[in-house]
Write a structure and sequence with these properties.
Elements: H1 6-30, E1 35-36, H2 38-41, E2 43-50, H3 57-71, E3 79-83, E4 87-93, H4 98-105, E5 111-118, E6 124-133, E7 137-145, E8 154-161, H5 163-175, E9 181-185, E10 188-191, E11 203-210, H6 212-225, E12 231-239, H7 245-270, H8 272-294, E13 298-299, H9 301-330, H10 335-367, H11 371-403, H12 428-453, E14 458-459, H13 461-464, E15 466-472, H14 479-494, E16 500-503, E17 509-514, H15 519-533, E18 541-545, H16 551-576, H17 579-602, E19 606-607, H18 609-639, H19 645-655, H20 657-677, H21 680-730
Parallel strand pairs: 1-13, 14-19
Antiparallel strand pairs: 2-4, 2-12, 3-4, 5-6, 5-9, 7-8, 8-11, 9-10, 15-17, 15-18, 16-17
Helix pairs in contact: 1-8, 1-11, 7-8, 7-20, 8-9, 8-11, 9-10, 9-11, 9-18, 9-20, 10-11, 10-16, 10-18, 12-17, 14-15, 16-17, 16-18, 17-18, 17-21, 18-19, 18-21, 19-21, 20-21
Amino acid sequence: MKEETKGKSLLKLLLIIAATAAFCVMGAMNMADIKLGLDLDGGVSITYQAVEENPSQQDMDDTIYKLQKRAEGYSSEAEVYQEGSNRINIDIPGVSDANEILEELGKPGSLQFCEAGYDEEGNITGFDNVVLDGTQVKQAQVGLIEGTNGAADEYEVGITFTDEGAQTFAEVTERNVGKPLAIVYDNEIVSAPMVNEAITGGQCSITGGFTYEEANNLASTIRLGALKLELQEVRSNVVGAKLGQQAIDTSLQAGVIGFVLVVLLMIAVYRVAGVAASVALSMYVGLMLILLVAFEVTLTLPGVAGIVLSIGMAVDANVIIFTRIKEELGTGRSVREAIESGFHKALSAIVDGNVTTLIAAAVLYFLGSGTVKGFAQTLALGIVLSMFTALFITRWLMQALYGLGCQSPAMYGIKKPVEKALDFVGKRKICYAISLLIIVCGLAFMGVNKVNTGDMFNYGLDFKGGTSTNVTFNEDMSLDQISTEVVPVVTEATGDQAPQTQKVAGTNEVIIKTLSLDADQREELNQALADNFDVDKEKITAENISGAVSGEMKRDAVVATAAAAVLILLYIWFRFKDIRFASSAVLALCHDVMVVVTCYAVFKWAVGSTFIACVLTIVGYSINATIVIFDRIRENLKLYPGEERKAIVNRSITETLSRSVNTSLTTFIMVLCLYVVGVSSIREFALPLMVGIVAGAYSSVCVTGPLWYDMNRLSRKKEAPEETRKGKKKK
């Protein structure tokens, strides 16, 4: 670390504080521009009905999935779900003009590729002989053709076919070389590109000097037509938030309270370094608010989870660095040397921990859908920011504070070298038994729940579907009135403890979504609403709806989580050059998820869309603590080559124990504030998340290191007999 004059140090400090203040003010001013999801701010709700009278469930499912992908073009948090037997509802957050959305979205209709009839001059006179339909189109997107020699850029439409469509398209283009092929949407030709050659690769491009708007419109039409069913609009509404302003306000209050408590804890434990971290964290918050607007991220409850997690990881990076500095001071180094060495030695653990979480976020974004994407966006953004603020801003601040006279070791805290390590390995069988007992208990309760209720978990509306009831009140009900007056009546009449409500903007209509109601329950609800609010029972309508979390979305979430675990395993294997490190880390991840799943089964917590967010948060968070311990084991293996593996593991866990406790504590504080201050829907999310944080801290300290030790011991046992046999042969 370079020595700086007090003048330069003061200038650096003032510049950083000024920049932090500016970012925080800009972030606060931008808060009103952050796009909020349907659960926090409302949006547009559109209902389509299949033209076919009795569509198959498979066709409905396929159409819902494709519409989900289409709707995500407007917002990654869009929800698409079935209503009744032949209707599909689309909720798009962050917008307020239903007509504009309908105009842009268009009416999904039938798409066909036809051989065209044409006259002697090459003009198309009609079309017949349908050779392909929309179901054989996998994707259509806009591509750029860069202009050369000063020519303007042009755009093209690239089409990818399914395997079946690719084979048929190859045959069609082979016999139509030099002829146009008509693309027909709702019996109108939208494009008639000339076939220049036989196309056998399953991909083609349509060119013609398109502007971006022209190419995008054609691509959108092809995508819309690639649906199993032809749909027609039934209704469209602007709806209010599911959670309401109270949820937003309480979440902000919880965030502020949690942030202040974390800052106080950091200063109390790490002193001068804690002050530097507090300024860096403040800059992180300001930048996060600015970038949420800049990248047009739609913020929902799972997105809030990603931000909470990334704040925890921002604190974590600082804790790793500061713990290292205290250790270096404990060995007798000067403050200047300790700061430089602390940042250097902490770098690998910070990078590895954040990269593994970033891998998980990237996989979840590209393979997931709906709320999974929103979670991944905020998490990835937070990780990048947390690394920047921890590795650069905190470092510059500490250099400035050192230059201004903060040069006494007592100002940073001193951690003496470990004289006697705690025997974590020796107690591993007890820890294994506790973990196994919890998981077995969870599996047993899943079985009992399955027998008693038909489901292993208490699936909520998002997973299981239910009944959507539309009620027109005699007055315009505020969100607070709905929450405090209407919801209790609905709960008492239906038994559903977590009904969802939405206002239809500009009307007195409220949409109430509950678990499935039979005829008697519907009548009881209607009567209760009439008795308590004097509504006209004849104007109350109800429809069965599917879960907003479709089967395809569940599959995407599972596939994405599995793929993330595999990639994390490969990365750790590559970085640590030992498959045993990677295997024990992934097993610990599975352990943490299973502990939370067990709580869902035992305590019958409602499993909704927040369940997915909780699981993903745990996957992203708990790996970080494990990486820190493994990084210390790797370091100690080099420092103490003659020491037994058991002693190495115990030493490494003991040396990093304060870091594990402090990081888990700061993140736990943030989530605890959400639980204490937040509304019921926020608490449903915060409670399992707290369990996951505790489980992650426990597994990192008590399970992963001992698992690695046991894997090493088993591999040495397998190698020993072989070496013995070789030795005997040599003799």
